[in-house]
Amino acid sequence: MEAELHCRRCRRNYPAETGYFCPQHPGEELMPVPDVTEPVAASEAEPETVAGAAPAPECWSCGARATDSRNDRCTVCHQSLVPPALVISFPSGSVVLPARPSSTELGRAGEHGHMFARYPNVSRRHATVSVDEEETAWITPFPEAPNGTFVNGTEIHDRTRVRPGDQIRFATDQEPHVGPVSESIRQPGRDRQFPPSRPA
């Protein structure tokens, strides 16, 4: 029988040719499959949590567990281990608001312009996304952006709350000029998840 490797995190076995890391948990090293007939040595057992010690944080971006609880950056994807207030991923990049309160403009101009440069129907200043002190995320379209801002397929005209799971689209969804559509919005710093909102 061909050798298998084991992920301690998801407790699954994978073929040896899978590689060094679990495909479901980047950064989690695969180990030889434990022999259930032999007792596990104390040195190989899951590390015990020392009373009062914080567990090693898990990366919000890739899911890898920090190898040292004192790390402030993920050793796999190099993102900060402090979860950001808001993440909106578009086909050509992600908008990350690291803290609250904070806001940023989206469009073909400014800090995130490179993400929207190939979309002629996205305005230079299309919308603003923000997170307030209470961790509530908002999107506000600029009135002068003629091609529209949409949340979950519904055009919005005023400041609108967005939640984890919502999708943002700028401009039309008709060929040949389909505007950029985000993946589901994420708020990694929040513990609870909400169902997608319906703009008023």
Descriptive labels:
about 200 residues; mainly beta; Tumour Suppressor Smad4; 2 domains; 4-stranded antiparallel beta sheet; 3-stranded antiparallel beta sheet; 12 strands; about 0% helix
Question: What would a concise description of this structure say?
Answer:
Keywords: Phosphoprotein. The chain is mainly β. Helix content is 2%, strand content 22%.
Approximate shape: elongated
The Cα radius of gyration reads: 22 Å
Q: What level of helicity do the residues show? A: under 10%
Q: Briefly, what CATH class of the largest domain?
A: Mainly Beta
Q: Per DSSP, what share of the residues sits in E-state strands of 2 or more residues?
A: 15-25%
How are the strands of the largest sheet arranged? 6-7-8-11
Low-confidence spans: pLDDT under 50, at least 5 residues? 38-49, 191-195
Q: Count the domains.
A: 2
H/E element string?
A: EEEEEEHEEEEEE
CATH architecture of the largest domain: Sandwich
Count of beta strands: 12
Measure the end-to-end span: 60 Å
Going by helix content, strand content and strand pairing, the class is mainly beta
Stated plainly, the CATH topology of the largest domain is called Tumour Suppressor Smad4
- Average pLDDT: 81
Count of helical segments?
1
How many strands, what sense, and barrel or not for the largest sheet?
4 strands, antiparallel
Organism: Micromonospora purpureochromogenes
InterPro entries: FHA_dom, SMAD_FHA_dom_sf
Keywords: Phosphoprotein
Domain FHA: 104-156
